[in-house]
Amino acid sequence: MERESSVYKEYLQILERELVPAFGCTEPIAIAYGTALAADILGKMPEKIRVEASGNIIKNVKSVIVPGTGGMKGIQTAAAAGVVAGHPERKLELLEELTREDQQAIRDYLKKAEIQIQKAGGCRTFDLTVTVWSGVREAKVQIADSHTNVVHIEKNGRVLREEEETAHENGAREERPALSIEGILDFAMTSDIRDVEELLDRQIRYNMAIAEEGMKHDYGANIGKVLLASYGDDVKIRARAKAAAGSDARMNGCELPVVINSGSGNQGITVSVPVIEYAAELGAGREKLYRALLISNLTAIHLKKGIGRLSAYCGAVSAGTGAGAGIAYLMGGGYEEIVHTIVNTLANVSGIVCDGAKASCAAKIASAVDAGILGFYMYRNGQEFVDGDGIVKKGVESTIANIARLGRDGMRETDREIIDMMIG
């Protein structure tokens, strides 16, 4: 792929947009960002807050610790943390520097402020509106379709910003970039490493740090430690264990940042940590690791794009598939090995559901990465799932299109049922 071509530049833009740092689970941070921005526009400490959130946001905030708060959970905590933290310009990193004094300020604010929660109407799966009041003053912020995409701002009834609604279906479809597995592999093999080195170095540094933290200490269900204790420390186990450990740490209060993928820190950990672990085991050079990470990251983004940011379809599946593709490349695989790894993985674990952010995400990540590794070894041993095997269709892009349809349309009612089970 020519470095000066429009497609090459578009792929770079996708990576720069998607591989950004976040401090803690991204849904509570989005709420904190919304309240911080609304309070900043209001110009005063709000006395009352109303958070209107789509069911998928509520689902993902319900059971996860809000980072920097000393172990507190929930939408009210996230909203209060945003007010106390301020600095909305820091976006998904705004809670990173909360102090013990700030934690106490959050508790005090929760006692005195009125914070209402409502389920948002409309068809978007990611829809968040925060309204704040102080006396007769009022400010409102709406974030839609992704975690920092501010589409509406108003103050005292006067509209300050209004974005035109982009084409989407139930919040899932955005305008799709020119991604394909063939294009991803072309880009990954021909990229000038100088263009991606800084992005990928940060992903390696951040995501391995939280994985190591998860392995060292007691977080969540300690899936990583269970895997190593039960199955040994072969690279196939370590790749799963370290990714799971990073998720366990992140879901359960670890105050380390993560480089996300497709709006999710868990997916960011899953696409990177197993690939990094395999590269170390195989003695791959830095350049080969970078190219493997390009394959992994972009494959996951490609798979998620048709499904949408939030769904009943577990995003760990897309990320585990991406990791499998990156590992296939590290193991000497070319186009055929990589596309069959992708199809074999999707045929295996595409039924895993998302029931919110919490400790069991780590177990799902371990299963998805295992499926990605198995998908490669299946093809290496002459085995594959073929056209007509359930949702598998001839050609990798046709199978990916079926997965998008499954996650976006087929699991819509499943999503509603899950949300009703969790929040009533």
Automatic annotation (TrEMBL):
Pfam families referenced in this protein's UniProt entry, alphabetically: SDH_alpha
Gene Ontology MF: a single term: L-cysteine desulfhydrase activity
Top-rank taxon, per record: Bacteria
GO biological process annotation, one example: L-cysteine catabolic process to pyruvate
UniProt domain Serine dehydratase-like alpha subunit: residue ranges: 90-419
Sequence similarity: Belongs to the UPF0597 family.
Protein name: UPF0597 protein BEI59_22225
Provenance organism: Eisenbergiella tayi
Lineage, broadest ranks: Bacteria, Bacillati, Bacillota, Clostridia, Lachnospirales
